[in-house]
Amino acid sequence: MVVIYLVNMFIVGIVVTGHYECLYRINLLTPKLPMHHRLRIVLGAILAVTAHIFEIWIFGIAFYWMNKAQGWGHLEGNYSGSLMDSVYFSFTSYTTLGFGDVVPHGDLRFLAGLEALTGLVLITWTASFLYLKMAHYWSEG
What we know:
Blueprint: H1 2-29, H2 37-68, E1 74-77, H3 83-94, E2 102-105, H4 108-140
Antiparallel strand pairs: 1-2
Helix pairs in contact: 1-2, 1-4, 2-3, 2-4
């Protein structure tokens, strides 16, 4: 059980650290760009969504490998075992959409729950970040 917890927290740590770095770089990059502040916000949003997609792929790869390995549980339902199906499941978990057509069993349920919680935190973090950037630029006129 300790190994499962450590592996899952390692995955979450990679994703959260990566998201922090992305928002940090957006914060450093956008004020230096020679463009209107509206385009800076749009670019920031596009880069942030790109970061979320990258994070979803990290979780998807983890689901793919854990599903293939023994002792981690498995995914079933509308799931063929492909990497793209794992990434699809990751998208529905990260966004807390959860269609329910792919269902985790065993220890993969822990990662699915952690991904939903992590996705919720990171999506709201991005929303707060973009709100602060907009408020800053809008106050400048």
